[in-house]
TrEMBL record:
Organism of derivation: Candidatus Raskinella chloraquaticus
Alphabetical list of InterPro entries matching this protein: Citrate_synth-like_lrg_a-sub, Citrate_synth-like_sm_a-sub, Citrate_synthase, Citrate_synthase_AS, Citrate_synthase_bac-typ, Citrate_synthase_sf, Citrate_synthase_typ-I
GO terms, biological process: tricarboxylic acid cycle
An annotated GO cellular component: cytoplasm
Protein name in the entry: Citrate synthase
Pathway(s) where this gene product acts: Carbohydrate metabolism; tricarboxylic acid cycle; isocitrate from oxaloacetate: step 1/2
Taxonomic path: Bacteria, Pseudomonadati, Pseudomonadota, Alphaproteobacteria, Hyphomicrobiales
Gene name, Swiss-Prot/TrEMBL: gltA
Any one GO molecular function term: citrate synthase activity
Length: 430
């Protein structure tokens, strides 16, 4: 039974802190009065026990391995829906009717082109720039082009900015890819669906017709669905914090992309594939597992472990099935990297260290094998994660803007630096 309040005894006083319950999942203790009543802060580096906001968008049960988008289980959505439907659901809270879907899809389709000067913006990058560096720069630069959707107090402009972000991310991602391989940019095609359009912009060339493989497009569309949102993860929290200052949505998404790039977060899909390539063969797995367990070795099994999931990441299971589907469609009978991944997972899941620390494969463990098979270079893996996560960032940003409890995010600290002291003239310093 959840208590109505929690008492905190600090010295001679007892503070009664109200408890707020959600619809499902852990309740929260409202500590808003803690500083004024006790003169103390809470201390929770990494926010392992801290709810930063109230949200209705995504729910994760880490122990049960459950992920719900607006209450719908991810496996059901991945089985029966598509990414555009998932975008509508995350943004508006309900599954769209056919008419709502068609209107939403039409609006996205007609925002897929970027300002023509953006292509000149790309010319400023070196060809060997990491595509994530290009994405941070180009998405941030959108605020230099779309002045008519920067007023965050205007619901219409917020909606236009949201549609623009969702629509233009595939175009910018494809441009980032084409730029690194020295091929001309390919314009979006309005007759193609969202994910087929992206594949066409990545792999078509002006010299010949490019037919998108519908099985591969469906697989990538499902991968986008799996990556669409994930509660208050590091990059989403970055977007919310940036947005809490009133920054425009394009700048906030650019901040989210920067955070996602880290190997502990979205960069793990790139790092996981590089790790599998470094391991190279099944017989070399034990030495890497030993390194992952060695406290003195910074090496970690990339694609394993999660702050919230202390069970199998439900997305990883669907990801694994999609990997087999893509390899089968491409006629890839045996992929040595997949063999290493499957054996590494088997060993880790039977090893006491991983069992005790509840380390399971996460979404990044299998995604790299699939994306490589689809034809993407490793450097594009996190770009695809950012493409898919944009709708989650935008939905969370919009929820934050409309939250009556919202104020600028401004955490405090435990100060352990020098107490106040007087200035010492340089002539007397030793
Ligand atoms: C994503 O938050 C999200 O929702 C993120 C995400 C999303 O959709 O937005 O799900 C996407 O970022 C998935 C995670 C991708 N990152 C990786 O695969 C990188 C490898 N994993 C780890 O770096 C780690 O597991 C984290 C960062 C994912 C989680 O770290 P935590 O929650 O801070 O846990 P921790 O680092 O404190 O680890 C707990 C223990 C530690 O041992 P002790 O200090 O307690 O002895 O487990 C160990 C860690 O050393 N550990 C690992 C490990 N992950 C954690 N040991 C070996 N290999 C690993 N992968």
């Amino acid at each position: 039974m959840t208590p109505k309040s929690v008492q905190l005894t600090a010295g001679t006083q007892t503070l009664d802190m109200p408890v707020k319950e959600g619809s499902i999942g852990p309740a929260v203790v409202d500590i808003g009065k803690l500083l004024s009543k006790t003169g103390m802060f809470t201390y929770d580096p990494g926010f392992t026990s801290t709810a930063s906001c109230e949200s209705k968008i995504t729910y994760i049960d880490g122990d049960a391995g459950v992920l719900l988008y607006r209450g719908y289980p991810i496996d059901q959505l991945a089985e029966h829906g598509d990414f555009v439907e998932t975008c509508y659901l995350l943004l508006y809270g309900e599954l769209p009717t056919k008419a709502q879907y068609d209107d939403f899809n039409y609006r996205i389709t007609r925002h897929t082109m970027v300002h023509e000067q953006m292509s000149r913006f790309f010319q400023g990058f070196r060809r060997d720039a990491h595509p994530m560096a290009v994405m941070v720069g180009s998405v941030g630069a959108l605020s230099a082009f779309y002045h008519d959707s920067l007023d965050i107090s205007d619901p219409y402009q917020r909606m236009v900015a949201s549609i623009r972000m969702i629509a233009k991310m595939p175009t910018l991602a494809a441009m980032a890819y084409k730029y690194t391989i020295g091929q001309p940019f390919i314009y979006p095609r309005n007759e193609l669906d969202y994910t087929s359009n992206f594949l066409h912009m990545c792999f078509a060339v002006p010299c010949e017709e490019y037919k998108v493989n519908p099985v591969l497009s469906r697989a990538l569309d499902r991968i986008f669905m799996l990556h669409a949102d994930h509660e208050q993860n590091a990059s989403t929290s970055t977007v919310r914090l940036a947005g809490s200052s009133g920054a425009n949505p394009f700048a906030c998404i650019a901040a989210g992309i920067a955070c996602l790039w880290g190997p502990a977060h979205g960069g793990a899909n790139e790092a996981a594939l590089k790790m599998l390539e470094e391991i190279g063969s099944v017989d070399r797995i034990p030495q890497y597992v030993a390194r992952a367990k060695d406290k003195n070795d910074p090496f970690r099994l990339m694609g394993f472990g999660h702050r919230v999931y202390k069970n199998y990441d439900p997305r990883a299971k669907i990801m694994q099935r999609t990997t087999h589907e893509v390899l089968k469609e491409l006629g890839i009978k045996d992929d040595p990297l997949l063999d290493v991944a499957i054996e590494l997972e088997r060993i880790a899941l039977h090893d006491d260290y991983f069992i005790e620390k509840k380390l399971y494969p996460n979404i990044d463990f299998y995604s790299g094998i699939t994306l490589k098979a689809l034809g993407f270079p490793t450097s594009m893996f996190t770009v695809l994660f950012a493409l898919a996560r944009t709708v989650g960032w935008i939905a969370q940003w919009a929820e934050m803007i409309q939250d009556p409890a919202q104020k600028i995010g401004r955490p405090r600290q435990l100060y352990t630096g020098a107490p106040e002291r007087d200035y010492v003239p340089v002539s007397t310093r030793r």
